[in-house]
Amino acid sequence: MSIRLHGKLVVHEKDGSVLKGITSDFLAKRHTFHLKVRNSENGFRRIHTPTLKAVFFVKSFNGNENHHEKMTFPHDPPPGKRVKATFIDGETMYGYTHMVNHMQSGFFLVPADPTSNNERVFVVFDALSDLVIEGVRVPLQVGIAAIGFPGGDRISRTGGAADVDRAGQGASSGSPHILVNQMR
Question: What is the pLDDT of residues 4-37, one digit of tens each?
């Protein structure tokens, strides 16, 4: 049985190490996947998502050392909600997402910079120090069940009330932009 490989990945671990390779079994809802490490004769390596900072789905393994990601959103944005993700190591990424589900280990972000070598990035929640979606600071505590967006969307958390800090404006239980519902 042959395995069809696709998806060029650059995997950044929390400890700073980086692996490059291809995969055929990455799913956001799973905590492991297999990476055929580039230039390695050892075959596949099992990767544990909770140990990662992010998984970068790239156009090219080489990238462009001289390219600096734009830290702004374009005037004509693509579909999705604006995201500013700040990692524990201080790196900040700007992009768009359609869904954030804390029942998974992370979420997909499409970079705001259309010239980025990254097609999309799987951002691991445990590697973040701050997450702002559409100007709303999203709680990163353990126990958050689901986060959605306007138009039938919600922010929920199992247990107590779900509070949202509107990027430094204090906690609120709702706004014209986000509906907050407690899951029971």
Answer: 446 899 999 999 999 999 998 999 889 999 999 8
Q: What is the CATH number of domain 6-58?
A: 2.30.30.100
Phi, psi of 125 (to 5 degrees): -55, -45
Q: Which residue has the tokens 């980086």?
A: 18
Q: Does residue 104 carry a pLDDT above 80?
A: yes
| Beta-bridge partners for 8 | 22
Distance CA 152, CA 142 (A): 24
Burial of 184 (0-12, 13-18, 19+ CB in 10 A): exposed
Question: Other C-beta atoms within 10 Å of 168: how many?
Answer: 8
In sequence order, the 6+-apart residues with CB closer than 8 A to the CB of 100 are 107, 131, 133, 138, 147, 148
Kindly list the domain boundaries of the chain, sorted by start residue: 6-58, 81-111+125-172
Closest CA to 123 of 169, 24, 54, 37: 54
**Dihedral sign of CA atoms 21, 22, 28, 34 in order:** negative
**Count of beta carbons in the 10 Å neighbourhood of residue 122:** 22
Separation of alpha carbons 154 and 180, rounded Å? 5
pTM: 0.73
Contact assessment for residue 121 and residue 56, using Cβ atoms and an 8 Å cutoff: yes
